[in-house]
Amino acid sequence: MKGFQYITCPELRKGPLIKVQTGYMKICHIVSNKCLAVTTTENKSEVHILLINEDKVDIAERISLGHHNVSIAATPINFVVVDGNENKMVFYSTCGEELFQKYLPFYGYPHHIYSDNVYFYVLFRRNSILRCYDLYGQMKWQWELPFPVHPHIAVFQGTLYVPDTQLNRVLLYKYQDRSSGCLLPIKNPYIRNLNLRLKEKENDQKLVIGEICNLSNGQLVVSDINHDCLLYISEEGDIVSRLSLPSTATDICRWDSNHIGVTLPLQKQLRVIGNLSKTVRSVKLRQPYVQVCKMGECEIVCYCDKPSHLDILAINYYNQVEVIKTINIPVFVKSLSIDKKTEKLLIVTREKLFSTTLE
Hints:
mainly beta, globular
């Protein structure tokens, strides 16, 4: 019988067995109940975006592949299909639209790709090389491993977990940058560290911080993309409030002195939330925007990554929007903000910072 089954951690309890009609050879989690899987049934090689419910599995999107020599990994923001035949990484949005491609250096064919919600790790098993990429396809580091790589490993935030089958143990290796030949003392650029203080029952929960926003009262708001929630943090590092979200927030912006704007692309929604974690306004958007910036009382500028463009929207009294202007952007935008002095829009891409007027 073909099916999916949840296993909860750390108790390792079995969940219900859900029947499926398709045989899947690889699967990984994207966000919430959304998963990614590879199938090669009926002489077809496809990637499926799945919505897994308690009693059924729905196929939300299908992506055709030319062959089955692929590996997959996902984050709540995007996912990657590694094409072993063409030696490249293909980045997709969580809705299944292709964003861009990144060709890999040839160290033998890529064996597998892993993800820890923040980075992608590509393993070249033949040469024992591990390469780390961020969500935008930029390489962060490369590591030539000092040992032959076991076919089943795990990677999390630069730490490599390798099973030792002879002595029945797991070995942990931590990446360190020694490319310069020596380790030089580097001045710490941070003014201070803010240690997040979790309650005792929360100490075993891993926070993956996606976005950060400063409030006028000195608090911070951070989005935890591992649990789809907002955390309100005091100046001392205590979590004073928590707000659950229906999906991953891709952007947090200052709305005014007492409110923030939270972008939810899966819901096609902008939520205006007060300092006490209460939603005071929900604006329905027509597209799955990933970045939103407030221009005036009733105008916002939004960025959509598929295809890449900016929309200037007017918000009416019924929280509906109307497109005033569309600007095509040929590059991937990482963040948007308004310069209060010049009232110009600041656009941050992978390599450059642009300043422009929107008249």
